[in-house]
């Protein structure tokens, strides 16, 4: 790949007034392209990939379900840990990588960007190894703590041990995708991931059930298919970085972690990771508050709440583009464009969640019909959706602003915003249910207030960081798409 060598001071000035002609066009768009069009162009591939991966995961779970209840329970028990590793590697750590690399590129500090990229790849391998060791040592104990016994425990342990042996290529795959997105290339990771996912879904039944004289490996085959997918994708994206598809191209020497680069990445990633843990803890706490109302309440709340799990990856697709765009313009010193990008991203995130929230608020039985025909379960799900669904725009708004904060490299105060939802809905709900004998409907109302509080605090945080409020979503932003 041809190296770009420019004097940093000269490039900073150029980035503010107009990108250097020597920069690839995909990166020039980050600095001066129409905001809405560029944001959609970057977000669309990732949104498509996240949606496809969700469908592939559901398909693989359906295959495993044919092995019996124990195998399905084993996969279900490991799912929260798989989701935790996904959100940490792609969202929290990946956001730190994109922020560091894109801001260096935007400022014209190309060697710094290369060093950040090299450090990011090595650190991702370290985190992957740590995940593998943790799950091999304590995975079984974790599943036992969740109440797994007998064949379900054995299935969960077997599936988990094989799956998390492949944690390292999974972390490298996400770090590589983040480096590519930092330079404006969101399409290649999405295309490679989509093709790989479809192939994985095609070979999974062969590894699980076998064909002809090949008997298959059962639940172990399902885990092996995922590991193979992660390994191949990691190799493909590493090749893309080193053979011309990435502006940031680390040398072998830069793979030795640099302290300054590690600090730049982790100062964004660590608070983001804490925010991810708080989000997962919030779901756990809220589920525990619903549990005393009975089995139907748990099933109804769980089914209704799945919509939020679906919306988060979609907003992540928008957010991943936001991180790249905000970081690049922030590195270039173009504060006006940072504000414009943030407003646009906030409008998109809130708009997507508003659409979903409006549908389930007006016709909640459409969503609940996918999961159950039992009237008691449906009644609880409807009660949840009609109360919390109306607050879903706050979810999209808050998350979008959170990703913009990642691009700015400011994630400490947004961590407080994530904690506010746990405090309002979790602590407040515990007091209401246990002290004041609240009904389930009252608890759901408080969950909606928790989302509203989260969004309001994020607005205040970004107003402080950028000197603007989200009260004005300039129409001029949207006119640029024309």
Query: Overall pLDDT, averaged?
Result: 85
What level of helicity do the residues show? over 70%
Listing every helix as H and every strand as E from the N terminus to the C terminus, the arrangement reads HHHHHHHHHHHHHHHHHH
Q: Give the termini separation.
A: 34 Å
Strand content: under 5%
- Note poorly predicted spans: 1-21, 469-482
Major sheet description: none
Give a brief outline of the structure:
Helix content is 81%, strand content 0%. With 482 residues, the protein is mostly helical. It has 2 domains: 33-257, no CATH class; 268-482, no CATH class.
Description of the molecule:
With 482 residues, the protein is mainly alpha-helical. The chain has two domains: 33-257, no CATH class; 268-482, no CATH class. The chain is built from 18 helices and no strands. The protein has helices at 8-17, 25-32, 35-65, 69-106, 110-145, 150-165, 167-182, 187-209, 219-242, 259-290, 295-331, 335-362, 364-368, 375-388, 392-408, 412-435, 440-466, 475-479. α4 (69-106) packs parallel to α6 (150-165). The longest helix is centred in the N-terminal third of the chain and has 38 residues, at 69-106. The chain is globular, with a radius of gyration of 23 Å. Mean pLDDT is 85; it is low at 1-21 and 469-482.
For the structure shown, list the relevant keywords.
482 residues, mainly alpha, 81% helix, globular, disordered N terminus
What's the topology here?
Layout: H1 8-17, H2 25-32, H3 35-65, H4 69-106, H5 110-145, H6 150-165, H7 167-182, H8 187-209, H9 219-242, H10 259-290, H11 295-331, H12 335-362, H13 364-368, H14 375-388, H15 392-408, H16 412-435, H17 440-466, H18 475-479
